[in-house]
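Troubleshooting: if your tokenizer reports a length mismatch, compare your output against this known-good record of 193 residues.
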Amino acid sequence: MNSSEMEELYYINSKEQAAAEVLACHLKEMLRHSPHPPVFLCIGSDRVTGDSLGPIIGSRLKTAWEKGFCTAVYGTLEAPVHALNLKSTLEHIRLRHPENPVVAVDASLGVREHLGYITISRGSLSPGAGVNKTLECAGDIAITGITAASGPFSHITLQTTRLSAVIPLAEPIIQGILLACENYLAEAAASLS
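Known-good structure output:
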């Protein structure tokens, strides 16, 4: 990352009451200049608890959007986007949504003091980097939830992360995304009228 991207990395404590609103504010600001609605790419595996954050969020977003929102979601519990299909999913998104900003959502590893924190930044994220996998970078905006501490046995840590640590982290991310998209879509509709 260059220095300007580093300046736009925000940490949000998911336990704070206003976490969803703070995330929504940053996301809305990052989407402000795009004339096209965002596409959400929720990365992770439903087979590894600590890595299930993305698919959990994707499933909840997809359900919300089926009730009236109009943006695309890739990566759910039923159809996860993970190491084996990330490349083909990114190619599909580039073909189907060439001008839409892609918001990549994934679990991440971090220092113990940041467990339960949400990060949001401009730029792509590197899925699998915490467990030494080299995968294609994804997204124009990155949202992560820090589900486990990084260390020499990160892959085991992710497998043994409790779901009770993942769900409370997913909730403010889901609510923040929904709030940002409600505002984005309302402003887009107002600009057309």
